[in-house]
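Escalation from tier 1.

The customer reports that the assembly of two entities below gives different structure tokens on two consecutive runs. Tier 1 could not reproduce it. I'm attaching the input and our single run for tier 2 to review.
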Amino acid sequence: MKTQNARRDFIKKMTAASLSASATTIPLASFLSSCSPSISKIASTADTVILLWMAGGMAHTETFDPKAYVPYEKGVESKRILSTFPKIPTAVDGLEFSKGLESIGSVMDKGAIIRSYKSADLGHILHTRHQYHWHTCYEPPQSVQAPHIGAWIAKELGPVNPVIPPFIAMGQRFTVGEAEELKAFHSAGFLGTEYGPFLIPDPSGGLESVRPPQGMSIKRFEARYKLYKELANKSSVMENGSDYQRESLMRSMEQSYRLLNSPEAKVFDLSEEPKEVYDTYNTGRFGLGCLLAKRLAMNGGRFISVSTEYEPFLGWDTHENGHTRLVKMKELIDRPIAQLVKDLDESGHLDRTLIILASEFSRDAIMEGRPGEQVKNQVEQPDIIEDEKFYGMHRHFTDGSSILMWGGGVEKGLVYGKTADERPCSSIENPVVIDQVHQSIYHALGIPPETHYTIEGRPFYTTPDGLGKPLLDLFGKPLKKDVEKA
Amino acid sequence: METFNWIFQFLGRLHPLLVHFPIGLLVVALFFELLTMGGKRQGLREGIHFMVYLGAIFAIIAAFLGWLFYTYDAYSGDLVINHRNTGIATAVCAGITALLLRNTVSGKLLNRRIYQASLVVTVVILTVAGHLGANLTHGEDFLTSVLPGNQESYDDSKGLALLAEIKASDTLSAAQQDRLNLEVRAIFAHNCYQCHSENKQKGELVLENKKGVFKGGKSGPIIVAGKPLESELYRRITLSPNDDEVMPKKGKVLKKNEIDLIKLWIQNGAHWSDQALKVFPEAPLALVKPNLPKVSNQDHPVDKIIDVYFKEQGLAWPKVVDDRTFIRRAYMDIVGLLPAPESITAFVNNTDANKRNVLINELLGDTHNYTQNWLSFWNDLLRNDYSGTGFITGGRKQITDWLYKSLETNKPYDQMVKELVNPTAVSEGFIKGIKWRGVVNASQRTEMQAAQNIGQSLLGVNVKCASCHNSFVSNLTLEQSYGFASVFADSVLELNRCDKPLGKMATVNFLYPELGDVEAATIQERLLKLAEVMVKPENGRLYRTITNRFWKRLMGRGLVEPVDEMDNTPWNADLLDWLAADFIDAGYDLKQLMRRIMTSKAYQLPTAKYKSQEAIKTNYVFEGPLLRRLSAEQFSDAVSQVITPVYAAVAYNPKGEELPEARIWHREVKFDRDVLPEPGKRYFRKTFTLPNKPMLSARALISVDHSYTLYINGKKVSEGEDWRKVDKLDVGDFLIPGKNTIAIEGVNEGNIANPAGILFALKISYENGDIITMNADNSWKSTADQPSKEWVATIFDDSEWAEVRNYGTANWGKLLDFTFEEQESDFARASLVKQHPFMKALGRPSRENVTTSRDEQATLLQALELTNGQFFNSVLEEGAALWLNRYNNDSEAIITELYQKSLGRKPSAEEKNIMLSVLGDNPKKEAVQDIFWSTLILPEFQFIN
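Tier 1 run:
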């Protein structure tokens, strides 16, 4: 154990030293000492992760796991409604999606689908609590603040490109309902703000976050920094106190200056894209987020999330008019996601970029929660539908949903797991839980499953108690018994 | 292919068996080879050859099987890779050795030494591979753990002494029996718990408690009282170290004196003491005020103790800091504000020898600012915030008002603790915890949160570990935690280990039962008892903990660190105990505690130099206070003081609410849902009737996010574009008896939907003393469609318009200036402001959990926020305009004033010249903004020196 720590430290120091020799802008991350005794190292199959977050609970039966289609007619029974869209074929033989997702279907030969994700059973449904659980792998509340998966990755791997923050979260504003709950998991938790998300609520304004302040020319920006440096040198009264404290402050200012003055900031500039590309992606903020994610992935982003944005009762959170609203949601995501996959594939980046599409849970027309663990209904749903606004998946279902993955070593064309074709459309084959999803992402990035830090005297693992196991099947490895059970 | 995997897996698993052939053969071959050196024992030669050939063949087979094992049995990690590589290297070398031997035998290779050298290399690599393999099977410390010095060392001199004492006496006293038992249990703890604890019950045996020890394990009882030789436990620990059944484990046995003690214990009837076993060091509860050392050259009690300490450390007293440094330090620490330039000058020029003590007393007397500064410390400590998770479903409560008033009145600390532990409605938020909707982990039920938070915040002990299982870092057990949590529960709690119910009920208990019992029939009675027990002066822990926190806050580092682990050894126990005892003697007076520390010379020493953060963490030697960074709140307030107010609105207004604070805006709906308003113009109207009588005055207050034009009765009254500013207007001339109409054109800026809102109040005073007030509320009407021109007039028909929506206060807070009082507009103290991205970046924690140390590390995200953050830059921009106006575009005045206000000194000639070269004679707003920025991010400004 001792020798391994020493070696790890050595590698760390080497990395820091070589970085400082080669790059002028070193992220502070590489200076911070780590106390994570990573016991083993595993080969990585990805350097970058893009999380496409379907916020609000995306019904699997309406999207990537369609069931029997029952068209709307006045007087139809709610219990007959399994899917409100017809099925369509995809690029993978035998794999069918729901109508409206033709473009994503066309790139499924480059990716995999998990059809058996089970959300945690957290009693009452509070979207943000399930989202917290999905993003941190821990159920709130916790006695210490749990880090977002992006923060773990930023901490363990640092940035790919030193001028691109290693954890970027796009699309979510924090002025909406449940904002405090959203903030609670958009956080590096006990890892420290250094690894927290770089927030870009509106991707079209992404450039502003990495350029000098609005209205300030580069020339003025440079002059301002020069002035500060000169004054700092002249300020002779700070003779006491430890030098390292002042130095760390000045170094952070220098890094920020270099980052903001770096030509690479244009990665964040969507106006550099040709008009037709921009238009293809531009289905709204989510689509532009995909476009920015593409640019970031191609230029050294590490963890990038793009959210359709959670706002209570909006987006995927359909409490009524489920069918008509889903038509719009599909329009929002279908084209840009498919284009993102294609573009990264063509440029060769998909091999080392893992794209994941997921949602906190699914929906159903009549079941709230899951069989055997049903919770209080939060939506009025008549037994007989007389008004089209009741046609759709309006209740929260936690027993089965879909996760899509592309690139980063994921086996192409894989269909993993299965949900029942009749209600309840639960996961009936190879059920997958969040610990496995997280460990699979870490596995692809080469982060060992036992990674942990000691906080307040206790080990805190990437997944609870360090027990999570990756789904090796996703990466073309033979099925393991213990994985199957979980 | 898949179906034959089991064969490969099976073959692979033969690897550990097979590897012993090459190991044995090659090692013996080398040994024999050595025996034949110098031409002796040539009879061995043929045997050696066979051994080398066979060894090589087996080495290759073993490597192959190892490869299968690795592939089909999902091993991973450095160790496996290294073992694999050395294993393959062994096979290759063994093969080469065999070939070399064949060539040597056949005469093709004349020099036998080459083959011998190859054999040596093979055996060396083989040894490495073998060792790594052994590490894989037996654990990495298999070999090294038995080396002297690597064994779990604990002080057994006590055990030896006890052994000698007991051997010498014929019958044991009760006290001796107790000690013997505790010693035996300590042996169990250090040697057996690893496998035989409640957490991990190997062989169904638990040695952690009485029940487990006497129940025994899978194979039955392990102790026959009085008969060691018939006791399974004794048999197992006395077996040969190589016996498969030996305990603790093969290769690791107990020391002789440990075995003797266990034997004696069983012989003497295996008595079980009621005392709890303390495996981990624990600070004594009791607090005895140490006698002050007789030091004549120091007057202050703290300095007397430090004087002795310095002598022990071989350190000399440094000179105390100068007046300028001192006054900034004292201001920041007590009121959290920068001293005004005039105050600094007056202080420096003051010749009173006692002026520093006088200043401290003055500042402590500034109750308003003391409270607003220290509020942040207590909010962090007591997990209190104005926003955060839990509030949405009513699962959380603030204690702000209680806390604010407690600080304002300098409530004695014991009283504060009592009110926190046994709360009324205003202070119950602390033990109520944060409740999320739904099912939570057993270790996070609110009763357990109460136990954890009281433990951490007030007692400096970690209950969190022990709320899932017996603690690995302290003596706390799961039972104790549940016993403590049960104090706060409606009914006695069932123990859960790692979220699994154990079918065992807790016994209500305090963590330190020696202080008193807290058992009672109802929660109310229990809390009352607990409150009394907690604050007893005998509970030195409570007072040491707060004393240590204050020391850290004022000096940069605690006497004990981490400050939440009060069982750790302080760097000066006498100092801690003296201060804590003095705190009790002085009536639990928090301000007095500050005064005690701050009037010492120790507080006034120059900030100490340390090489790295490590030197502050371990082997710390006190040489003076640490350099401290301004907290997020202090930085914001300092900018407010120097430049222009950073915040205008608070989340908590201690003065109470005079006027409604909720804002209205056009109701916007998407999919039948209320949503944030889209950018664009919205039109608002309200018609009302006024009596016909002599009016004294009519005042209106208005603040609109983002901008507005106000009309009364068709006439334009004012415009504004900053929601943080309250426009206070005299509108008497616009009003008429009868029907009046207020019309507001509001604009929401931005590219995407975002908060917008109108805050409006009208107050009309009549000569007869009547007062009419009219505030913007739900009775107002609005539209998003551009209306016809006369929409501002009373005659306009707004019946088609919609009712406005109340957007609350969450996005804006409460504007301090939204009052009819003609007060000097002050800035909002950051401690009262809702968590904000700017402060968050500067390290203000989200108070979801107790936070007792802020991260002082400078981070890139923080630097980015300061460098290009729109919020900070717009404050500076506003300030620049203000200053140009205030100082009449006079560059020199601006520079001097900036230095005086921010750094508390005049600029040097050089500094002044640098700044002048930027500002020039006719300073531009941008240039002023840039010198602001450059000054505010200077370390000299950002640190408390």
